[in-house]
Structure formats: structure tokens, C-alpha cells
């Protein structure tokens, strides 16, 4: 299991993930960051499972879920960076 943390401008983003055969098998995004609506993170986790472990695919999926969310003190790039970091930690 890969684990990575990123200190965003306001808050910590922590991602634990597993991959299998080049695809995301499981992912958990936690921390004290602020995103509204909050359930967008759970929806994004579900959407990431099964996609190829590829920065372009991950970035597109994160944008899909977070582009209409309100991020306070963190950015889409922060989430992409920490997700990719956790997947490289395998």
C-alpha cells in the first residue's frame, strides 16, 4: 500500500492507495482539508478505482470531480500530486 501526504496551503491531504496490474485497486483520501460539498471526495474515490495508473487519466478524473467543488486552501493540482505520489509508493 502506498501512502503519501501533502501539506496544502490550508490543510493536509493524505492518500493511501493500492494498484494492481497498472490499475487503481483501492484509494482513500483523508486529511483536514476543506472541500464542499464534502461527498465529492467519496465520489472521486469511487471514480478513481479501476482507472489506469497514468498521470493524464488521474488528472482528468480529479478535474471531473473537483472542478465544480469549492476548494479552500488546496487545489486540483495538490490532489493530483498526492494521489500520484501514493501510487508511486507501491
UniProtKB/TrEMBL annotation:
GO biological process: protein lipoylation
Residue intervals of the Lipoate protein ligase C-terminal domain: 7-83
Keywords of this entry: ATP-binding, Ligase, Nucleotide-binding
InterPro entries: Lipoate_protein_ligase_C (IPR019491)
Pathway: Protein modification; protein lipoylation via exogenous pathway; protein N(6)-(lipoyl)lysine from lipoate: step 2/2; Protein modification; protein lipoylation via exogenous pathway; protein N(6)-(lipoyl)lysine from lipoate: step 1/2
Reaction(s) catalysed by this chain's protein: L-lysyl-[lipoyl-carrier protein] + (R)-lipoate + ATP = N(6)-[(R)-lipoyl]-L-lysyl-[lipoyl-carrier protein] + AMP + diphosphate + H(+)
UniProt GO molecular function: ATP binding; lipoate-protein ligase activity
Protein's name in the database: lipoate--protein ligase
Species this protein is from: Caldisphaera lagunensis (strain DSM 15908 / JCM 11604 / ANMR 0165 / IC-154)
Amino acid at each position: 500500500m502506498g501512502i503519501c501526504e501533502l501539506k496544502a496551503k490550508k490543510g493536509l491531504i493524505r492518500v493511501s492507495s493500492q494498484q494492481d496490474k497498472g490499475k487503481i485497486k483501492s484509494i482513500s483520501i483523508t486529511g483536514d482539508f476543506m472541500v464542499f460539498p464534502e461527498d465529492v471526495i467519496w465520489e472521486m474515490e469511487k471514480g478513481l478505482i479501476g482507472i489506469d495508473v497514468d498521470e493524464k487519466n488521474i488528472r482528468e478524473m480529479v478535474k471531473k470531480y473537483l472542478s465544480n467543488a469549492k476548494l479552500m486552501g488546496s487545489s486540483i493540482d495538490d490532489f493530483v500530486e498526492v494521489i500520484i505520489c501514493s501510487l508511486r509508493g507501491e
